[in-house]
Specification:
The complex is a heterodimer of chains A (about 350) and B (about 180). Chain A has one domain. Chain A is built from 11 helices and no strands. Chain A is globular. Chain A starts with 9 loop residues before the first helix and ends with a helix. The relative contact order of chain A is 0.15. Chain B has 2 domains: about 130 residues, Four Helix Bundle (Hemerythrin (Met), subunit A); about 40 residues. Chain B is about 75% helix and about 0% strand. Chain B has 7 helices and no strands. In chain B, helix 2 runs antiparallel to helix 3 and helix 3 runs antiparallel to helix 4. The chains are: A mainly alpha (about 350), B mainly alpha (about 180). At the A-B interface, helix 4, helix 5 and helix 6 of A face helix 3 and helix 4 of B.
Chain lengths: ~350, ~180
């Protein structure tokens, strides 16, 4: 984004970064909702899905957003109104903060943070507070139960997520996301540099654990116990209407997109193509056109990963609460600890 | 006038923007901390505490300690505060103001806080004096890990035993059989 021939003042750069951040969050969210939630789900259920608004219903999203925006903004009488209104903002803001460290090209990043991965995991965990207080402030038993279930689930699945990332960090030798991209695209497999060295090959266990944890963090089925619409009437979101519900809705799918971005950076090589193709030695040799191609590559990888997330969502029934906790604490966490141990031993030995 | 003051400060190597930022964040933290102890709703108190802890993370960023700042967010906001809220909501979490939020010894907290403030202030002034602390650049995380696994390995291992003791204590309390 920067490093162009034009000199942009600092306020201009900041403005561009904010605009870029909004695009990087909302564009994937809209694409996921239309492509997967509307069309793929309909296809899997042998129906057409939205067809009226625009060609193949492509304008349906705008119709939906318009509908939500004009609905009345209601808060229950017994609710703690200020906190009730604050909760969806916390959830959405944590998503926007998350995208700040994702690199989209050699110069196309919002900030090149030294401890990028760690930051992403930390900021991702803040949204739990928004969900908890949304459930509490609604003054509704279903909402409170949903909020508590969500908190219990998110805490349980945050651990395997953090631990799964540690394997990648050990292998790359850096927590900087840009550094992790470069490490994968300059790597060689037994002297063969044709496909670089995407960490999904050696960290396949980590990748699977990470994607399962993402599924749980997003409360997508089979991990949708907290919002279970048939028993909890959407849990912590029950009392929300109008644009506050829209914020939760956007937050859910935008977070799916951003986590898919992060997963593709960690495991699938990020924005890069194997540097050996064009004989680039390092980050400094990568030409400027990668700043245009990089975001497109990232977008394609994001779509692939969110396709898997949605595919699983539409295919599996819901876990029971005890199965869900057992799965995290007794299977995912021990396996990811083992993965760290093995990765560290191999890293030192080889 | 302000321009000359700024010029003098800048000539001494004082980063004005950082100091202003520190002041604003510190003011917000003190205000939030007072709200934690004076609010009449326990969930509100916990949320004000989130603001205080977030302020601490922001101060770490200003001081160039990125890793510590992110750890602060992950551990205190993402885990400890979530567990606090979780525990409160499982037990007592009325909406509206709550009776019995203050215990009888609340006045005792004021001299303790004053004493602690004096002690910390004295330590900092004794350490730095009139020196201007050089403009901090972010500390590379590699330096931190080298320090942990090198000269500070023994204290680091000793600290892990504290955590182990806490974990064992939690299991002893939680197990009924």
């Amino acid at each position: 984004m920067l490093g162009l021939a034009i000199e942009i003042p600092y306020w201009g750069q900041s403005l561009l970064r904010v605009l870029g951040g909004i695009v990087a969050v909302l564009l994937p969210a809209g694409t996921i909702v239309y492509l997967f939630l509307f069309k793929m789900m309909s296809f899997m259920q042998s129906r057409l899905g939205p067809m009226e608004a625009g060609p193949y219903g492509s304008m349906q999203l705008f119709a939906e957003v318009g509908k939500w925006l004009q609905k009345e903004d209601i808060a229950p009488e017994a609710a703690d109104v200020r906190i009730f209104k604050m909760a969806p903002i916390i959830v959405l803001v944590s998503t926007f903060l998350l995208v700040a460290v994702v690199p989209f090209g050699p110069d196309a990043y919002f900030t090149n943070f030294e401890v990028g991965v760690f930051y992403a995991l930390a900021v991702g965990s803040v949204s739990v507070i928004g969900i908890l207080i949304a459930g509490w402030a609604s003054a509704n038993k279903y909402s409170l139960l949903g909020g508590l279930r969500a908190a219990g689930q998110l805490i349980a699945y945050e651990l395997p997520m953090v631990l799964a990332v540690v394997g990648v960090v050990i292998q790359a030798g850096t927590m900087n996301l840009q550094g992790i991209v470069v490490a994968q695209n300059t790597g060689e497999i037994f002297g063969f540099a044709g496909i670089g060295f995407p960490f999904v090959i050696t960290q396949f266990v980590g990748f699977i654990i990470f994607m399962i944890a993402v599924q749980a963090e997003l409360t997508q089925a089979p991990f949708d116990m907290p919002i279970a619409e048939s028993e909890l009437v959407s849990g912590y979101m029950t009392e929300y209407s109008g644009f506050r519900f829209l914020m939760f809705f956007i937050g859910e799918f935008a977070t799916a997109g951003v986590f898919a971005f992060i997963a593709s950076v960690l495991f699938l090589g990020g924005w890069g193509i194997p540097f050996a193709w064009f004989g680039w030695e390092g980050l400094a040799d990568v030409p400027n056109w990668m700043n245009v191609a990089g975001p497109l590559i990232m977008f394609a990888k994001m779509l692939l990963l969110t396709f898997i997330i949605m595919w699983v969502r539409f295919s599996y029934p819901r876990f029971r609460e005890d199965q869900l906790q057992t799965f995290a604490w007794k299977i995912l966490i021990p396996v990811s600890l083992l993965n760290i141990a093995v990765t560290a031993i191999i890293k030192v030995a080889v | 006038m302000t321009v000359t003051v700024a010029a003098v400060l800048a000539a001494d190597g004082i980063n004005i923007a950082k100091n202003v930022g520190f002041g604003i964040i510190a003011f917000g933290m003190v205000f939030a901390a007072l709200c934690v102890v004076s609010t009449r709703n326990i969930v509100h108190a916990a949320l004000w505490l989130v603001v205080v802890l977030g302020g601490v993370a922001a101060q770490y960023i200003l001081a160039g300690a990125e890793f510590v700042a992110v750890s602060q967010v992950l551990v205190y906001i993402g885990a400890v505060m979530v567990l606090f809220l979780f525990g409160i909501m499982l037990t007592r979490a009325k909406i509206g103001s709550d009776e019995g939020m203050f215990n009888d010894g609340w006045a005792l907290g004021i001299p303790v806080a004053a004493l602690l403030f004096g002690l910390l202030g004295w330590v900092i002034i004794d350490y730095a004096g009139d020196d201007v602390i050089a403009n901090q650049t972010p500390t590379p995380t590699v330096m931190l890990s080298d320090a942990y696994l090198g000269p500070f390995l023994i204290p680091f291992l000793a600290l892990t035993f504290v955590l182990l003791a806490a974990a064992i204590g939690a299991i002893v309390i939680a197990r009924k059989d």
